[in-house]
């Protein structure tokens, strides 16, 4: 498994746990032994980036995830979308299609087939509209 895939999954673990607990994922990092974040700085960059841009990310999810309220969306899917949107909108060194593909593949591995298709649709819409966001 590629290093960035591992980092994405590790960041997802922290974001998911924080989401369920209603905590800040950065605080969870501080509570864990360093070996638990062996994927290193990219996982931390994802966690920090999602948190730094969370209000805009959640606004986009709410707007483009038609038929789903944030509260009703499965927490794992919500956090997969958060990571992918951070990469698509703020990580210039990651290709948009790569970020979307990674999100879909992770969803296929740990969520449902329906989730993977849904995530793909939401990310596809946002990629198309990205130039109009002015970010």
Q: Quick summary of this structure?
A:
This protein has 7 helices and no strands. The protein is an all-alpha fold and 135 residues long.
Describe the structure.
The chain is mainly α. It has a single domain, classed as Orthogonal Bundle (N-utilizing Substance Protein B Homolog, Chain A). Helix content is 72%, strand content 0%. The chain contains 7 helices and no strands. The longest helix has 19 residues, at 3-21. The radius of gyration is 14 Å and the shape is globular. The chain starts with a helix and ends in a 6-residue tail after the last helix. The mean pLDDT is 90.
Strand content: under 5%
- Could you name the ranges where pLDDT drops below 50 across 5 or more consecutive residues? none
Cα distance spanning the termini = 31 Å
Q: Number of DSSP helices?
A: 7
Outline, from the CA principal axes? globular
Q: What is the number of independent domains?
A: 1
Strands, helices and their partners?
Blueprint: H1 3-21, H2 25-31, H3 41-52, H4 54-64, H5 75-90, H6 96-110, H7 113-129
Helix pairs in contact: 1-2, 1-3, 1-5, 3-5, 4-5, 5-6, 5-7, 6-7
């Amino acid at each position: 498994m590629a290093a960035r895939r591992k980092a994405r999954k590790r960041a997802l673990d922290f974001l998911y746990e924080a989401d369920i607990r209603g905590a800040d994922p950065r605080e969870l990092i501080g509570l864990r032994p360093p070996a638990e974040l062996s994927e290193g700085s990219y996982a931390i960059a994802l966690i920090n980036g999602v948190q730094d841009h969370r209000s805009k990310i959640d606004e986009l999810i709410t707007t483009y995830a038609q038929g789903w309220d944030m509260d009703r969306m499965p927490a794992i899917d919500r956090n997969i979308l958060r990571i992918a949107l951070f990469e698509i909108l703020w990580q210039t060194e990651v290709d948009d299609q790569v970020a979307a593909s990674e999100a879909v593949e992770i969803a296929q591995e740990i969520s449902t087939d329906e989730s993977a298709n849904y995530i793909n649709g939401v990310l596809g819409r946002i990629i198309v509209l990205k130039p109009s966001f002015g970010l």
